[in-house]
Amino acid sequence: MALRAEGLFKVFGRRPQEAVERLRSGTARDRLGPGTTAAVIDASFEVRRGEIFVVMGLSGSGKSTLIRMLNGLHDATAGRITLGDDELTGVAPARLRELRRDRVSMVFQHFALLPHRTVIDNVAYPLELRGVSRAERVAKATEILELVGLSGWGDKLPSQLSGGMQQRVGIARALAADTEILLMDEAFSALDPLIRREMQDQLLELQATLGKTIVFITHDLNEAMYLGDRIAVMRDGRIVQIGTPEDILTDPANDYVEQFVQDVDRARVLTASAVMERPRPVVAESAGPRTALRTMRDAYSAAAYVVDRDRRLLGTIEDRDAIKLVRRGETSIAGIVKRDAVTVDENAVLMDLFVPAVESKLPIAVTNEAGRLLGVIPRVTLLAALGPGPGATEEITLPQQPVPTTVIDQVLAEAEVAAADLKEVR
């Protein structure tokens, strides 16, 4: 675990410890009296190594106060913060400075660059504080500027850069510190929408390369859903829900969260694994054609998915092809398996499933990296998942018109009679 918060409180104003006890005993935040403000109330969470943990909430929810507690800019009124095995709360000032320098770096909303220093000197500043030589820190800063797409801009002043470029410098400076934990407080909210989305994409690209542990603060729900591996939703100083974007979108903890997420673009957040249903009908490659026909008949389907012994998807089989095998007396379906199954990865977002859904005769097959069949997505389920409300992704079963089975039954009966006759002859 990279970071852990346990029972955090931050109270501003008079008699903060008394306010904490009152809050613990059930006193409402707005009943603490004039001059006393509870910004963070009993916040507990863990941030895993290498994940982007987003703290989301409206103005006044306490999210910015919380992130400032995570690097010691605000002392906790009560509770504990640990960075790995290191205690952050209650340590001496010298130890706190050491932890901030070596364990945690921060990217601010309004860039916080040193205006009189060049871009490369801004990026190299954390290394300068550590006493790294000029040549070494310039080399490191040059490498990181290239990483964030600012190669060749090192000798410019911040005032000569656009807002998006200035924020890249802020990110580069945080990366130069080479800390495991990166705190980002509304880092992209001051940028124009197009630049903001570009910065979000670049952050994800950097994360895929560097694997930092990131705590990202935002009031923008779509940004939280796009960036976060997990999201903590705050309201009035309290964390009201922690979960993956899909958890929060499909199973909101209360009415507040449900209202918060009602306008989110579900097609860009929900993934195939979140809405898939149990796959059926499924036939093993080793099954005979009669078994395949019975499986399709029981599922009222004219086709089935074919898997190997490890449940890897091999393709599909149709009833008419299986009937031909039965009539010829063949016992293997291997020769008629069609390698035409339409598949999507379990992590594919719904936005990318519309075209495959139209092209597929069967529901879309959902597979993992190993090609294992995990589930299927019928078109009706795909459309229902895009509707509003937490129940939108619940499985919807529509009346199905049974596939005529007269021919199948006849062929199976003929095959059984033939098998009995053969047994008698033997």
CATH hierarchy: architecture of the largest domain: 3-Layer(aba) Sandwich
Compute the average pLDDT.
Answer: 86
CATH names the topology of the largest domain as Rossmann fold
> How does the helix and strand content classify structurally?
alpha/beta
SS summary, helix count: 16
Spatial order of the strands in the main sheet?
6-7-8-3-9-10
From the structure above, extract its key features.
426 residues; alpha/beta; Rossmann fold; CBS-domain; 2 domains; six-stranded mixed beta sheet; four-stranded antiparallel beta sheet; disordered C terminus
Secondary structure layout:
Layout: E1 3-13, H1 16-24, E2 36-47, E3 52-56, H2 63-70, E4 78-83, E5 86-87, H3 93-102, E6 104-107, H4 119-129, H5 134-147, H6 163-176, E7 181-185, H7 193-210, E8 213-218, H8 221-227, E9 230-235, E10 238-243, H9 245-250, H10 255-261, H11 272-275, E11 282-284, H12 289-298, E12 303-307, E13 313-318, H13 319-328, E14 343-345, H14 354-359, E15 364-367, E16 373-377, H15 379-385, H16 406-425
Parallel strand pairs: 3-8, 3-9, 6-7, 7-8, 11-12, 14-15
Antiparallel strand pairs: 1-2, 1-4, 4-5, 9-10, 12-13, 15-16
Helix pairs in contact: 4-5, 4-6, 5-6, 12-13, 13-16
